[in-house]
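Whiteboard transcription, Tuesday session. T.W. wrote the C-alpha cells on the left side:
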C-alpha cells in the first residue's frame, strides 16, 4: 500500500520561552486553521504527530505549544524541522487553481517547444512567479514567468505539463 504524501505547512525556526513553545514560519495560506489548538501536525524530526495545545502570533511567526514538547531544550532540538499534514487533508481548490507542490516538476512548453521544468514558485505579492529551469545547455538557463491567466494557457497535472505564452520580449 502506498504511503500518503505529507505536505509541509510550517517550519520551526526557533524556541520561545522556557515551556517548550516553538516559533513557526507558516508555509500555508490557512495558518489560523492549521495551527489552531487541537490540530494535529506531523513533526518531521520526531517521526510522530503532535497536538497543538496553544497558538498565538508574535512578530509574524506563530508560537505553538505542541504536545510532548515540555521545555526549551526539547523545542530547540526541533530547529529547522517541518510540520506536515496528509495531502488528503488539503481543501479542494476551485478549477484552475493549484497548490504550489502540484506545479513543481511540471514540464513547461510554449507553442510545443519545451522551455524546461517548473522548479520553484516565488510569491511576490501581486502575483506568483514560476521559475523554469531550462534543459542543460539551453539559454537562458532560467526563465521567470508571471502566473497570470494571459501567460498560463493550460495546466495538465495528469500529464505533468503546463503550456504557456511568454510575454513579448521576455526572452530578449
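and on the right, the sequence the group agreed on:
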Amino acid at each position: 500500500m502506498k504511503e500518503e504524501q505529507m505536505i509541509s505547512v510550517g517550519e520551526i525556526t526557533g524556541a520561545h520561552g522556557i515551556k517548550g513553545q516553538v516559533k513557526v514560519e507558516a508555509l500555508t495560506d490557512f495558518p489560523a486553521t492549521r495551527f489552531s489548538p487541537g490540530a494535529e501536525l506531523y513533526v518531521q524530526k520526531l517521526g510522530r504527530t503532535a497536538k497543538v495545545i496553544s497558538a498565538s502570533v508574535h512578530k509574524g511567526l506563530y508560537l505553538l505549544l505542541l504536545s510532548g514538547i515540555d521545555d526549551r531544550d526539547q523545542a530547540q532540538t526541533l530547529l529547522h524541522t517541518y510540520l506536515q499534514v496528509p495531502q488528503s487533508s488539503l481543501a479542494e481548490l476551485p478549477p484552475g487553481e493549484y497548490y504550489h507542490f502540484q506545479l513543481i516538476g511540471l514540464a513547461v512548453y510554449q507553442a510545443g517547444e519545451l522551455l524546461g521544468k517548473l522548479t520553484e514558485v516565488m510569491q511576490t505579492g501581486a502575483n506568483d512567479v514560476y521559475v523554469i529551469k531550462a534543459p542543460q545547455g539551453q539559454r537562458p538557463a532560467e526563465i521567470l514567468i508571471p502566473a497570470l491567466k494571459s501567460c498560463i494557457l493550460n495546466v495538465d497535472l495528469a500529464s505533468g505539463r503546463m503550456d504557456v505564452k511568454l510575454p513579448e520580449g521576455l526572452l530578449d
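Someone added at the bottom: The mean pLDDT is 92.
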